[in-house]
């Protein structure tokens, strides 16, 4: 998978950080130390880590991912990364 979306809500200094959905690469999710969860009321699964986004972005950079874009949506921050 060449693209990864990383997001966090409200507190970007401490996490947690969402790092993938139910279709994400399980090997990459394992490398990030991500846990798969389903929040009450959601009809989808997501992977998250307790690390701050900065830690996650550093780990992804070490795997060859680069930030393509970043935006804020309400109290959520989202980064899009791509791997060549």
From TrEMBL:
Chief location of this protein within or outside the cell: cytoplasm
Gene3D superfamilies documented for this protein: GTP cyclohydrolase I feedback regulatory protein GFRP
Swiss-Prot/TrEMBL keywords: Cytoplasm, Membrane, Nucleus
Entries under Pfam families matching the protein: GFRP
Keyword Ribonucleoprotein set for record: no
TM annotation in the entry: none
The organism's place on the tree of life at top rank: Eukaryota
GO BP annotation list: negative regulation of biosynthetic process
Any Gene Ontology CC annotation: cytosol
Keyword Iron: no
Molecular-function annotations in GO: GTP cyclohydrolase binding
Localization: Cytoplasm, Cytosol; Nucleus membrane
PANTHER family per the UniProt record, alphabetical: GTP CYCLOHYDROLASE 1 FEEDBACK REGULATORY PROTEIN (PTHR16852:SF2)
Similarity comment: family membership: Belongs to the GFRP family.
Full protein name: GTP cyclohydrolase 1 feedback regulatory protein
Organism: Nyctiprogne leucopyga
Gene this protein is translated from: Gchfr
